Amino acid sequence: MKPKDIILEFIRFVVIIALLIGVMYLLKTPFIEDNPTDKEYVTAIVGEAANQTEDTMICVAHALRNRGNLHGVWGLTAKHIAKESKKTWKKAWVAWELSAHEPDNTHGAKNFGTYADLIKMDEVPDFHVQCGDLYFY
After folding, report:
1. What is the CB-side half-sphere exposure of residue 2 using CA atoms within 13 A?
2. CA angle at 33 for the pair 82 and 35, rounded to the nearest 5°
3. What is the pLDDT of residues 59-113, one digit of tens each?
C-alpha cells in the first residue's frame, strides 16, 4: 500500500468513528423541540430546583419562559427527577402557572446557576437577582 492510500484509509476511519460518536450522542440526548410543552418546562423546573423554595422555582420558571426553549437546561434530564415526590411536582406546576401571571422577579434573566457554577465561568456574567441558592443573569 502506498503512503497516500494509508492516509486516505486513516481519514475514512476517523470520519466513520466521528459519525458513530455523533449518532450515539444523538440517541442518548433527548430531542428538544423549539416549542417545549408545559410538561417539559415543569420537568426542567423539577430538575433544576427540586430542593429550592417555591419562590426560587418561580424564578426558574421565569428564566425558562424568558429563554423560550430548553436548550442546554441540565435539569431536563437530571437523574433525580424520577424520584421526586408528588409534592415537588405540584410545587413545580404551581410555579410554572404563576410565572405566566406574576411579574418577572428575574428582571428578564434567561440563565441561572449556583455560585459554584458562576465562579467556574471564564467570564462571570452580571447577574440580575439571587433567588434562594441560584443566581439569575
Report:
1. 3
2. 105
3. 999 999 999 999 989 999 999 999 999 999 999 999 999 999 999 999 999 999 9
d(CA 96, CA 34): 18
Instruction: Write down the pLDDT at residue 86.
Output: 97
Local structure of residue 109 (DSSP, 8 states): -
Using CB atoms within 10 Å of the CB of residue 59, give its burial: 0 to 12 exposed, 13 to 18 middle, 19+ buried. buried
User: Which run of H or of E encompasses 63?
Assistant: helix 54-67
pTM, rounded to two decimals: 0.75
Among 15, 28, 65, 29, smallest CA distance to 45 is for: 65
